[in-house]
């Protein structure tokens, strides 16, 4: 009997099956407890509302003093100088560079790992390798940042490869960030590929394809929406990452035109600017939230797209 | 299956020898592809091993008792991470006290009592998923704004940091608790209701206890993520010189990641060594937490 008491709405809300509606309980204490639980879940909505209010109110103050065109299209970011300038483009170029470099690392290696785990690895091997890959995602980002600064930038780029670069670079930060994102891309892509029915692979083999052809021409296209969701989630993580770029990409907000240059990302600016004393209500204080609002909108858009795509591929099969 | 594919493979190799069909499992392209996939997989691991090894080597000079007993100082020889270690414990403990009960309550409601088809509850679910993917620094801004609105001047206090981190891991705890609750079979709930229990009694005395290992694992993993976070705390002004032990919810503090960030920002190489040593310590703490979570999952996970 599948008129499940637990399918829709929990055990208490199946009309017609029971003579008594279990939702109205005569026990007073129960009503209080249930109300408390409901309050807890509504609180999560309050968090989002809180984030929006917290970001929008100071931003309104900010945009009263700084015209929005100056903000979005100006190319000099100097909010604390005597002749202050609030063009956000330098922060955006640095964010773009680190994100693109990170994706250039995470997408090929992540997808390669996902194809291997889903198509080639025996179940025993997969059980060992998947958690190991998750370890990459569990390392604190400060430790990655320290590694990017002291080993990748100093030792590898400057000493071993003799590259023309300073103490910081978006390449070092982007590279390390990319490796941090590999598990995100790999894990969701692998879920998507595993969801492709076995019948499709068997049909492909029956027609004479080897595993490489099956993976590339049958499984990959079938799992495409999940793979795109994985990449999009990787983008969101790259844009929102703070510590690696604050440590290794540099603290100077400038228009970044090459991978070996330094720059300050949006997150790097928020982290660095909050170190000083910003009086509540001052323009410096409001600047933090204006940049935070841009960051939040970008990642929100990306996340909504990704969640939609994940839902689609989970339902397709 | 492999017999079949081996048979097909042999037939195809034979056919490719005759020049009719290209491909087969042992064709050069297929082998090159497999090698490329192995490289992709190993790249991440080689990176991880390099990171761990270089951090340990860099910090090996300073991995001694001083790390645990000394306070930060302007001279690197005298510096240690004692307030950071204690501060981490304080902050993570408070975060757990704030986020875990709230997360479990919300998850219980969403999973057991809410009408899953209603638009409001679908919105709440979508909202939780979005919150789980918001950058961590935004939670710092949220805490900053909230505390400014309350008129709190010095935001570098334990309860403020715990607030920011608690909000950060709340969605993660809700999602993992819901998964754990979903794993409890419907028969358990139905049996309890059949014996006359109310839905609340069923949830509190049957479903929730049955899901405890999964909930504990999820909570510990969420806390280990909070342990490694520095960005929200930076926004609250945690990057100050702290040379005392934290002694209450309203006291100043610093945490391990913040201290590492602090030392990394100094120009002297000795401070970088200290940062590496503290990183090793932090990694060891995380390893211990994750090991506990895995042990709980493996030993207490019920097979229904």
Describe this structure in words.
- The complex is a heterodimer of chains A (317) and B (304).
- Chain A is mainly α and 317 residues long.
- Chain A has twelve helices and two strands.
- In chain A, helix 1 (28-65) packs across helix 12 and helix 4 packs antiparallel against helix 6 (170-194).
- The longest helix of chain A has 38 residues, at 28-65.
- Chain A starts with 27 loop residues before the first helix and ends with a helix.
- The model of chain A is unreliable at 1-9 and 14-18 (pLDDT under 50).
- Chain B is mainly alpha-helical and 304 residues long.
- Chain B is 73% helix and 0% strand.
- Chain B has helices at 2-17, 28-59, 65-69, 82-113, 119-132, 136-150, 158-182, 186-194, 199-227, 231-235, 256-264, 269-300.
- In chain B, helix 2 packs across helix 12, helix 4 packs parallel to helix 7 and helix 5 packs across helix 7.
- The model of chain B has no long low-confidence stretch (mean pLDDT 87).
- At the A-B interface, helix 1, helix 3, helix 4, helix 5 and helix 6 of A face helix 1, helix 2, helix 4, helix 5 and helix 6 of B.
Question: How much strand of chain B?
Answer: under 5%
- Helical fraction of chain A equals over 70%
Helix content of chain B: over 70%
Output the radius of gyration of chain A. 25 Å
Described by strand count, sense and barrel closure, the largest sheet of chain B is:
none
Oligomeric state? heterodimer
SS field, number of helical segments of chain A:
12
Determine the structural class of chain A based on helices, strands and strand pairing: mainly alpha
Number of helices of chain B: 12
Tell me the layout of helices and strands.
The complex is a heterodimer of chains A (317) and B (304).
Chain A: H1 28-65, H2 68-73, E1 77-78, E2 85-86, H3 89-120, H4 123-138, H5 141-160, H6 170-194, H7 198-206, H8 211-222, H9 224-240, H10 243-248, H11 266-273, H12 283-316
Antiparallel strand pairs in A: 1-2
Helix pairs in contact in A: 1-12, 3-6, 3-9, 4-6, 5-6, 6-9, 7-8, 9-12, 11-12
Chain B: H1 2-17, H2 28-59, H3 65-69, H4 82-113, H5 119-132, H6 136-150, H7 158-182, H8 186-194, H9 199-227, H10 231-235, H11 256-264, H12 269-300
């Amino acid at each position: 009997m599948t008129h499940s008491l637990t399918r829709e709405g929990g055990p208490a809300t199946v009309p017609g099956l029971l003579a008594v509606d279990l939702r109205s309980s005569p026990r007073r204490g129960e009503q209080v407890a249930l109300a408390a639980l409901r309050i807890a879940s509504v609180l999560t909505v309050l968090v989002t509302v809180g984030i929006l209010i917290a970001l929008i109110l100071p931003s309104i103050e900010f945009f009263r003093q700084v015209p929005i065109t100056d903000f979005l299209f100006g190319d000099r970011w100097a909010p604390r100088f005597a002749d202050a300038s609030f063009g956000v483009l330098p922060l955006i170029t640095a964010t773009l560079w680190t994100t693109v470099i990170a994706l250039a690392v995470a997408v090929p290696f992540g997808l390669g790992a996902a194809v291997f785990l889903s198509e080639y690895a025996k179940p025993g091997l997969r059980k060992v390798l998947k958690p190991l890959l998750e370890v990459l995602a569990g390392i604190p980002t400060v430790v990655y940042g320290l590694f990017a600064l002291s080993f990748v930038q100093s030792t590898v780029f400057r000493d071993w490869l003799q590259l023309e670069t300073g103490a910081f670079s978006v390449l070092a930060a982007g590279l390390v960030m990319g490796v941090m994102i590999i598990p995100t891309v790999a894990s969701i892509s692998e879920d998507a590929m595993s969801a492709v029915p076995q019948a499709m692979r068997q049909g492909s083999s029956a027609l004479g394809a080897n595993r490489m052809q099956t993976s590339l021409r049958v499984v990959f296209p079938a799992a495409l929406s999940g793979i795109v969701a994985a990449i999009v989630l990787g983008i969101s993580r790259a844009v929102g990452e703070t510590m690696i770029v604050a440590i290794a990409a540099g603290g100077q907000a400038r228009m970044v035109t090459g991978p070996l240059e330094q720059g300050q990302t949006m997150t790097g600016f928020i982290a660095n600017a909050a170190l000083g004393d910003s009086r509540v209500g001052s323009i410096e204080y409001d600047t933090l939230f204006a940049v935070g609002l841009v960051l939040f909108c970008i990642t929100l858009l990306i996340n909504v797209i990704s969640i939609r795509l994940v839902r689609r591929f989970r339902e397709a099969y | 299956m492999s017999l079949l594919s081996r048979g097909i493979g042999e037939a195809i190799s034979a056919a490719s020898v005759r020049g009719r069909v290209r491909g087969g499992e042992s064709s050069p392209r297929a082998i090159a592809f497999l090698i490329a996939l192995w490289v992709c997989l190993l790249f991440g691991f080689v990176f991880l091993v390099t990171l761990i090894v270089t951090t340990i080597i860099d910090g090996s000079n300073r991995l001694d008792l001083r790390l645990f007993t000394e306070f930060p100082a302007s001279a690197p020889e005298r510096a240690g991470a004692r307030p950071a270690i204690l501060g981490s414990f304080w902050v993570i403990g408070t975060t757990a006290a704030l986020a875990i009960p709230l997360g479990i309550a919300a998850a219980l409601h969403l999973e057991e009592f809410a009408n899953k088809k209603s638009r409001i509850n679908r919105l709440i679910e979508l909202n939780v998923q979005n919150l789980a993917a918001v950058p961590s620094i935004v939670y710092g801004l949220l805490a900053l704004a909230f505390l400014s609105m309350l008129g709190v001047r010095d935001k570098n206090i334990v309860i403020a940091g715990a607030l920011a981190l608690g909000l950060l891991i709340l969605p993660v705890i809700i999602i993992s608790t819901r998964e754990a609750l979903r794993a409890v079979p419907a028969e358990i709930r139905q049996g309890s209701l059949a014996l006359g229990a109310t839905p609340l009694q069923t949830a509190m005395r049957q479903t929730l206890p049955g899901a405890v290992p999964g909930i504990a694992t999820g909570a510990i993993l969420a806390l280990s993520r909070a342990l490694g976070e520095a960005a929200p705390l930076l926004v609250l002004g945690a990057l100050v010189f702290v040379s005392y032990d934290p002694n209450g919810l309203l006291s100043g503090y610093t945490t391990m990641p913040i201290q590492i960030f602090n030392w990394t920002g100094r120009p002297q190489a000795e401070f970088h060594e200290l940062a590496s040593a503290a990183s090793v310590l932090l990694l060891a703490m995380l390893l211990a937490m994750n090991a506990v979570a895995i042990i709980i999952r493996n030993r207490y996970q019920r097979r229904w």
